[in-house]
């Protein structure tokens, strides 16, 4: 199974992230985001950051998670290449615990692709069946 794929959106980039579980699909969404910014194959998992978020539903959780990834990228000046996610549904809410790994940005080492300005709610989806497919669009 492929981890993610991109689709065309005027002036933006959309992606689908796939996984056998919700956790795996969220991890692959992290890869999709950072492959827009740079090539994750060139990003070493030298430093780790852990965070936890709670959201009212799975779509809001995806939005909040992607926003958190972008926040740490911008505030810590880091690129990430490894994502470990644990999602639990508790009393109708979704709780996500993440450990993301990467390194400080070094544009002499890392490819400079596109800057992501924001995550959008537009057409965001979480589809769970035998496998999981996430859909998101980012503003460039």
| Count of separate DSSP helical elements | 2
Query: What structural class should be given to the helix and strand makeup?
Result: alpha+beta
Portion of residues in beta strands equals over 45%
Radius of gyration: 14 Å
Average per-residue pLDDT, rounded, comes to 96
How do the helices and strands follow one another from N- to C-terminus? EEHEHEEEE
Mind describing the biggest β-sheet?
4 strands, antiparallel
Low-confidence stretches: none
CATH homology superfamily name = Archease domain
Spatial arrangement of strands, main beta sheet: 1-2-7-6
Work out the helicity level: 25-40%
CATH topology category name: Archease, Possible Chaperone, Chain: A, domain 1
Architecture, according to CATH? 3-Layer(bab) Sandwich
Count of the separate structural domains: 1
How many runs of DSSP E, i.e. beta strands?
7
Shape call: globular
Query: CATH class, please?
Result: Alpha Beta
Termini gap: 27 Å
């Amino acid at each position: 199974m492929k981890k993610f794929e991109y689709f065309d959106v005027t002036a933006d980039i959309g992606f689908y992230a796939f996984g056998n579980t919700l956790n795996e699909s969220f991890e692959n969404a992290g890869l999709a985001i950072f492959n827009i910014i740079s090539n994750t194959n060139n990003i070493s998992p030298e430093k780790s950051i852990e965070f936890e978020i709670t959201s009212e539903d799975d779509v809001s959780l995806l939005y909040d998670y992607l926003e958190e990834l972008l926040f740490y990228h911008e505030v810590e000046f880091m690129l990430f290449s490894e994502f470990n996610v644990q999602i639990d549904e508790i009393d109708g809410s979704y709780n996500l615990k993440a450990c993301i790994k990467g390194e400080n940005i070094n544009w002499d080492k890392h490819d400079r692709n596109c800057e992501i300005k924001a995550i959008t709610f537009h057409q965001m989806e979480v589809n769970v069946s035998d496998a999981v497919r996430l859909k998101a669009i980012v503003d460039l």
